[in-house]
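Take a record:
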Amino acid sequence: MSPLPACQTLLLESRNGVLLIRLNRPESRNAMSLQMVAELRMVMAAVRDRRSVRALVLRGAGEHFCAGGDLKDMAGARAHGSAAYRELNRAFGALLEEAQQMPQVLICLLQGAVLGGGFGLACVSDIAIAEQSAQFGMPETSLGLLPAQIAPFVVQRIGLTQARRLTLTAARFDGAEAQRLGLVHFVEPDAQALQARLEQQLAQVLRCAPGANAATKALLLASVEQPRGPLLDQAASDFANAVMGEEGVEGTLAFVQKRPPAWAN
């Protein structure tokens, strides 16, 4: 198995089928530089087909998750005109697309600033766990900018009505409001409780077969866009393949024998 790519803006740690990815620019509240975007995409590409990696945990170093895009990168792109801005912006959209389609379960741990691009990353997670005091928001319009790449993912996560209100007012809100909106699944009072909730969720994820999880995630995402008839035809084929496949055989045998399946040991 090839090693993970070397990174300057990320800290990587693998344990028990889980890859912890820590955004590591605490001096800028983990603002998303072009380099960080590129490194995240490289790491995800490196582990996408690794069945041994069953979950990805994305969090920030220090007290913040991610304060959005790096304004220094934007200032540097100014000399190269609008094409440079398009490239910079679209690269982050590609990251969100790739993160959303990862076959592994993606868990985001949200503390401190969860703004702009950080907000977008939360929207493509499978499980989002926030600290009560976290500060969420999309401040782009207050800067004369657009939430260009995150907007479709925000709408898909919390709906058009709330997305319009939040983007057009650049509103800030805490973890409890994020849970009410459906952006996050769990809200915890402090960092210790946040970690305990993460461990609980990871234990549940690791009870599930990795191939079945990957196929189920793809089915759920496809259900948003594809016509129902063809989608159900494809789902029936996927189900038949699962029943006849290694995980299906092991899972049903384990059930009959009243023991945990191999992937849960």
Observations:
- Residues 254 and 261 are 5 Å apart (CA to CA).
